[in-house]
Amino acid sequence: MRKIVHLSFIVISICLISVQNPYARPVAEYTGIITVAAQNRNSISGFVFGESRTPVSTVYVELTNEFNSTISRIQTRGSGMFSFTGLPSGLYNVKVLTGGTDYEEQTRSVSLVPISVIQDRGSISEQVDFYLRLKKKRNVGPLAAPGVLFVQEIPDSAKKLYESGIVDLADKKEIEGFNKLKRSLEISPDYFMALDRLGTEYIVRGYYLPAFVLLTKAVEVNPRSFSSTFGLGLAEFRLNQPDKAVKSFKNAVQLSSDSINAHLWLGVALHSKNNLPEALASMLHANKLSKGNSAEVHWQLARVYKDQKLFRQAADELEIYLKFRPNAENVEEIKQIVSSLRQKQ
Predict the structure, then answer these.
(1) What is the pLDDT of residue 136?
(2) Distance between CA atoms of residues 223 and 229, nearest Å
(3) For a tag site, which of 22, 52, 65, 314 has the least CB within 10 Å?
(4) Is the same domain home to 302 and 344?
(5) How far is CA 330 from CA 3, 244, 337, in A?
(6) Residue 252: inside a domain, yes or no?
(7) Distance (Å, rounded) from C-alpha 339 to C-alpha 345?
(8) Does the reported pTM lie above 0.70?
């Protein structure tokens, strides 16, 4: 059982972080988050509703490209609304992540192809609404609560700060957004939504110590949260705590068995402990879930195969990786490694 983290520790840790330079240690290469150019004006927005057509808040909506690489992940607001802006033209998948709830996940494909007589001009906005269905349960007793989301009694002042902070973050006003989330926690130290959002925002920006503090608390408040559990695993791994990271990633897999990232990162953590058989099994499962379309999964598989001295398989995985990332900065170096592995086989 994790130790409860006192709010003063949370506040102190958060105050140590300057949001003037939030990208000091980016983790985009690991989480699959892609920074899009500011000049792109396309957008995808919509609402998430439950079976009773009531808004579903605080669930994550994930945006991926046609190769299943994650571009962004945001939480729905109190109204159930989500929005992705500044997107380049292309094909996208929008997925509602329902880990920790009794709803089924849903995915919709969206094509953003602006129409303009001038090349590279024009923009398009697509509206995509989701109506979630409850999972079909077996052997469920009469006292089971259908479709129950995590609910807290939170002061209105904290809620308003949180919701305003989320809007600021969506509008790229990071300093204002972070400050409002922190103030909401000062009012309500156990406010799960604020703990989870601020912790995951810090993970994306590479601030692992405050993320660890916030997400440890978030998991204590809501043990069924996939986002907090997975984010905690990332923080633990980056803080050189592989044993704890493996445990958190295993919990994340239990909460969302079809999460590609959960299986992938469980494999990465197991690999760091030199548990090659289990690492390989976890990564192969991630590869199956992604239908072979994740460049990061192929890269990590190559590393495990190499350490197992399965050089042909390692070379094969690197070549598949290059098919997805033909413009990688170190493409020539990777090609040389492939050649070397071919010779070793």
Answers:
(1) 61
(2) 8
(3) 52
(4) yes
(5) 43, 32, 11
(6) no
(7) 10
(8) no
